[in-house]
Amino acid sequence: MAKVIGIDLGTTNSCVAVMDGGKPKVVENSEGARTTPSIVAFTKDNERLIGQPAKRQAVTNPDNTLFAIKRLIGRRFDDPLTKKDMELVPYDIVKGKNGDAWVEAGGEEYSPSQVSAFILQKMKETAESYLGETVTQAVITVPAYFNDAQRQATKDAGQIAGLEVLRIINEPTAAALAYGLDKQDGKTIAVYDLGGGTFDISILEIGDGVFEVKSTNGDTFLGGEDFDSAIVEYLADQFKKKENMDLRSDKLALQRLKEAAEKAKIELSSAQTTEVNLPFITARMEGGSSTPLHLVETISRSDLEKMVGDLIKRTLEPCKKAMADAGVSKNEIDEVILVGGMTRMPKVRETVEEFFGSKPHTGVNPDEVVAMGAAIQAGVLQGDVKDVLLLDVTPLSLGIETLGGVFTRMIDRNTTIPSKKTQTYSTAEDNQGAVTIRVFQGEREMAADNKLLGQFDLVGIPPAPRGVPQIEVTFDIDANGIVNVSAKDKGTGKEQQIRIQASGGLSESDIEQMVQDAEKFAEEDKKRREGAEARNQAESLVHATEKQLEEHGDKIDASLKSDVEAKIAELKTALEGDDNDAINAKAKELTDVAMKMGQQIYEQQQAEGATEAPTDGAAAGSEGGAEEDVVDAEFSEVGDDDTNAENKG
C-alpha cells in the first residue's frame, strides 16, 4: 500500500515527513536539507527553480522570484491585506480573472494555489526519492486561523500538484500530535505557533491518544516576514539619513536588504550584535560619473527588540481570546509548546514565559514538528497509527445574512468538527418567490464586515405572505474545515446545495488546466535534468577518450585513430547546441569507436607481452595450454592499519 505523506506547506519554508517504523521521519530534499525554502523563480530562459536554487538567485532576479505566496492564498485582490503585501514584495501582484490576488512572473500570471502546487510537487518528489515509489496522497497543514477560502485554495494546490489531499490539518494541532503521541497522562497544553507568515494559538487537552482542541485563535498576517520587513525599514531609514537616498525604490537593493535582514535576525538569536555589510548597494551620479555607496550598519539585539516589540505584543491578544474561549486560566495550562522558526528569538520566548507564567517547552524542533504531526495524521488515516483520536475545531463563526444585513450565526467558532447544524428561516416579503442565501465567516455583528464565502439562490417558492414559507438551511463542516451549505423549502421539497467556494476561487476547469501546466513543467524539468546528465556524461566521455588517445594512440591503426578523432569532434559540436537527442546519438557513436580502440590497445599489449615472455624453463608451464596461464588467487582486503598483505595461491 502506497504511503500517505505529511506536508507542512509553510510561508517561508516547507517540510515533508513520512511514517517509518511507527515514527514520523522528516525527509531530506535533493540538496540534503530537511526544510525547503517556499520560493519559486522563473529565469530569463523560462526555467523554473524551486527551493534553495530559487532563493540563491533572488537578488539578481527579484521581479520573477515568488516568496511568501501563502499570504495571498485564498485572498481577494481588493483585500486590504493584499494591498499591504504589495508594498512588501518586489514581484507584481495582479487581479486574477476571478477577482482573486494572483502574481505575475516570467510574463505569465499564476494563482497562489498554482505557485504553492510547484512547492508541493518538490515535497512530493522528495518523499518519492526516499520511499522509492510514487506518492499520490497527502495530509497538508494550514494555519488554524485560515478561513474556508484559504483552506479550499490549499486543497486545490494539492490537486494541481497531483496529490489527493486526504485531510487538511491545523498546524498547531499537528504540532500537538507530534509532541503528545507517546504521552499517556492527561494534560492541557497551549501551542504557540509563530511562523514565517502566520500566528496561531491553540489550547488542547491531550491524553490516552485523544487530542481535543478546545479553542484556537490567531492572525494570518503576522510572522517572520513582518520581522524581516521591520529590519529592512530600519536599514533603509538609516541609509537615507546618512546618504539622502531611499533604497526602497530600487528592487535589487531591496532584495539584498531583505536577505541581510533575515540573516541579521537569525544571528541575533544567538549573538548580542551583528553587522550588516552590503558593499556597492547603490551608486550616486555626480557630474556624469557614479560613486559607489556601501551600507554598513551594526544592529544589537536590543535594537531588534525595539523594532519588533509591537509585533510580538500582537500575539498576546489572540492568546487571551483562545484561553477565554477554552474556559481555562494561565495556571491551568500544564505546558506551552513553541512552534515556528520565530520562536527561536529570545524576546519571543521571554514574552511567552511572562504571559503564561511558566517556561515554554522547547524540546521539539520548531521547523519540523508540524510536518511530523501531519505524517502521524497520515498514519492514522492509513491505519498504521492506532488509538489516536483527533478532535479539531472551526476557527471562525459561520452564518448567513438575514434581514437588515445582520450576521446570524449558525455554527459558533471553536465548535468541534466535523459538525452539522440546521435552522429554519422564512421570507422577508409577501409573495417572495426566491431567496438568496449568502454565507459568511467571521466574528462581526454585521454580515458585510465578515468574509463572504459564497452565495446561492433557492427558487420556486410558492407565493405566500411573508413569514409563512419555511426554508431549512443546513451547514455542514467536514474534518478539513471546509463548508457545505444546503437550503430546502419544506413546503415544496425543493432543495439547493453547494460546496462553498469563495466568490473567487478556482473552478474545476481552472484546476484541470493548472494540473496540465504543472505536468508540463514537471516534464520540462525532467528533460532539463536528463539533458544536464547527458551533457555531463558526454563531456566525461570526451575527456576520457582524449586521454586514452594521448596515452595509447601509437598502439592503434591510423584509420581507427582518425575515426575516433572525428567522433570526438562531432560530439564536441553537438555539445555546443541544446539538442539532447543529438548529444546522446553522438555520444553513442563515440562510445562504440572508443570500445574498438580499447580492444585494439588491449590486443596490442597482449601481443607485446607474448614476445617479451621468457623462452627457458619458465616457458615449460605454458605447455599445458593457454588456460593454465590464468591463476585463481584468494586475496584479503588490506585495511589502513594492515602492514602485510597475504596472497594465497
Automatic annotation (TrEMBL):
Induction comment: By stress conditions e.g. heat shock.
Protein name: Chaperone protein DnaK
Residue ranges, compositional bias (Basic and acidic residues): 520-533
Gene: dnaK
Role played: Acts as a chaperone.
Location of the region described as Disordered in the Swiss-Prot/TrEMBL record: 520-540, 602-649
Source superkingdom: Bacteria
GO cellular component, one term: cytoplasm
Keyword Chaperone in annotation: yes
Database matches in Gene3D superfamilies: 1.20.1270.10, 3.30.420.40, Actin, Chain A, domain 4, Substrate Binding Domain Of DNAk, Chain A, domain 1
